[in-house]
Amino acid sequence: MVSMTRTTPRFHLWIFLFLILAGEFVEASSYPVRINDSTGAPIAIGGPPQRVICLVPGITEILFELGCGDAIKGLTAYETYPPETADKEVVGGFLSPSITRIEALNPDVIFLSSLHQDIRDRFAGDPCLLIQLESHSVEEIFGTVETLGKIFSREEKA
Predict the structure, then answer these.
(1) Structure pTM?
(2) Is the dihedral of CA 82, 86, 88, 90 positive or negative?
């Protein structure tokens, strides 16, 4: 009976370690993620974005709600909600983001709108992914939330 109580904590430790490693494997195996953005462009995302520039205020709010705020490195001056946006680098206004400021942040993903053609032109062919997620209806907003959940491996929360 004594040996049973001594092995139980060790057994629980092995089970705990196995579950952690299994969780890491499942998370890692969910990439690459494939989506189509609002332009219809197919996009393959190799891993969770780490250096995001968000030029669309609605997407910024969704990312914070999904718990992805740490990935956001730059946003526009009009993105003031949630309060944590105050800690992020401002890359310009919605209609006039600074290409120089965006380049300095070395993004791996830029969320932009159809109004950001100059950004699209500059970063086309760059390793940085350009993702346009437009929402013009409630149904499209839900679709955007689901797509962002998929991109950041937060589908359950989305």
Answers:
(1) 0.79
(2) positive
**Lookup: tokens for 16:** 């705990």
pLDDT digits (tens, 9 = 90+) for 93-146: 999 999 999 999 999 999 999 999 999 999 998 899 999 999 999 999 999 999
The two tokens of residue 24 are 């890491």
Query: Are 73 and 112 members of one domain?
Result: yes
pLDDT tens digits, one per residue of 54-73: 999 999 999 999 999 999 99
Note whether residue 158 is domain-resident: no
Are 42 and 94 part of one and the same domain?
Answer: yes
SS3 61: helix
Contact 119, 129 (CB under 8 A): no
